[in-house]
């Protein structure tokens, strides 16, 4: 198989053997971020389709996710770092009940490499932990990720909780993850939150929105 097809296959098949050599070869030809966006993410998309249609079982999805994470970790040192922090601080979490973190961690990488301080508190985080981290680290923005449909409900509840505590004005909220849609965020969530809440389709839109929040 040609290199790009082979790399994608490694994600889909959850195949670690030979990954390093392929990534080294890939880095000679394209920037690290492009490899993630155009090749590896394409592989994860295929994994999602296979799993969704019952053609792939969960343990194999997990293996694919591990290969994806390994690949991103190998590529990260090769990504361009334009600024060293200080542009603003975001607390980033995957919401309660949700373990998906590949997207969240990509958002972390993109924001960190573009001048933001990211406090990444991990997966399955209840709103109390998100709030605590936002306070402790004096965050400018709260970022929540979630991939399950039920996570969209959790996000709604979290925004309601911030409102109920009178805290909405303190933090603009950035939301992302495959189960969300722009329409849901803009029509159903924005209206019920007394602060600003925005949807990011991908990590780059997340970066643009951070820039807008901090402007
Ligand atoms: Co799961 N899973 N999974 N899974 N998984 C999905 C989400 C699913 C759509 C698959 C499917 O059915 N086709 C489905 C959800 C269905 C639903 O809710 N209706 C699903 C399911 C059902 C489940 C379980 C319930 C399965 C089970 O146990 N029976 C279970 C849930 C466990 C739990 O959370 N409690 C489960 C478990 C897992 C694994 C552990 C095996 C693994 C996760 C490993 C990990 O993350 N460490 C996994 C994976 C890998 C997937 C799929 C295949 C791929 C997700 C991924 O990493 N994509 C996924 C299929 C899919 O998404 N279509 C699926 C790549 C990643 C880069 O994309 O996270 O969307 P994403 O991030 C994007 C944007 O969304 C955005 O930026 C990123 C790109 O630039 N973004 C943000 C994300 N967060 C952001 C935050 C921002 C801004 C932008 O600001 C704050």
UniProtKB/TrEMBL annotation:
Domain B12-binding N-terminal: 1-87
Binding positions for methylcob(III)alamin per the UniProt entry: 97-101, 145, 203
Coiled-coil regions, chain positions: none
Domain called B12-binding: residue spans: 87-215
Function: Catalyzes the transfer of a methyl group from methyl-cobalamin to homocysteine, yielding enzyme-bound cob(I)alamin and methionine. Subsequently, remethylates the cofactor using methyltetrahydrofolate.
Domain statement: Modular enzyme with four functionally distinct domains. The isolated Hcy-binding domain catalyzes methyl transfer from free methylcobalamin to homocysteine. The Hcy-binding domain in association with the pterin-binding domain catalyzes the methylation of cob(I)alamin by methyltetrahydrofolate and the methylation of homocysteine. The B12-binding domain binds the cofactor. The AdoMet activation domain binds S-adenosyl-L-methionine. Under aerobic conditions cob(I)alamin can be converted to inactive cob(II)alamin.
Family note: Belongs to the vitamin-B12 dependent methionine synthase family.
Protein name as annotated: Methionine synthase
Organism of derivation: Actinomadura montaniterrae
Gene: metH
First-to-last residue of the parent protein present: 638 to 852 of 1158
């Amino acid at each position: 198989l040609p290199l790009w097809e082979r790399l994608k296959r490694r994600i889909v098949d959850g195949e670690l053997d030979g990954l390093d050599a392929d990534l080294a070869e890939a880095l000679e030809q394209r920037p690290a971020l492009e490899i993630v966006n155009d090749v590896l993410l394409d592989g994860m998309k295929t994994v999602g389709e296979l799993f969704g249609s019952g053609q792939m079982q969960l343990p194999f999805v997990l293996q694919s996710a591990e290969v994806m994470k390994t690949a991103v970790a190998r590529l990260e040192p090769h990504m361009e770092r334009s600024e060293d922090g200080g542009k603003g601080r975001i607390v980033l979490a995957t919401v309660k009940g949700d373990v998906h973190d590949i997207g969240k961690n990509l958002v972390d990488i993109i924001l960190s490499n573009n001048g933001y301080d990211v406090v990444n508190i991990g997966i399955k985080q209840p709103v109390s932990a998100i709030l605590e981290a936002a306070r402790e680290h004096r965050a400018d923005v709260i970022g929540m990720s979630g991939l399950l449909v039920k996570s969209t409900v959790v996000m709604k509840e979290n925004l309601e909780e911030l409102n109920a505590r009178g805290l909405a004005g303190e933090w603009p909220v950035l939301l992302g993850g495959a189960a969300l849609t722009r329409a849901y965020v803009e029509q159903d969530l924005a209206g019920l939150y007394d602060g600003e809440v925005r949807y990011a389709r991908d990590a780059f839109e997340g970066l643009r929105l951070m820039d807008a929040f901090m402007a």
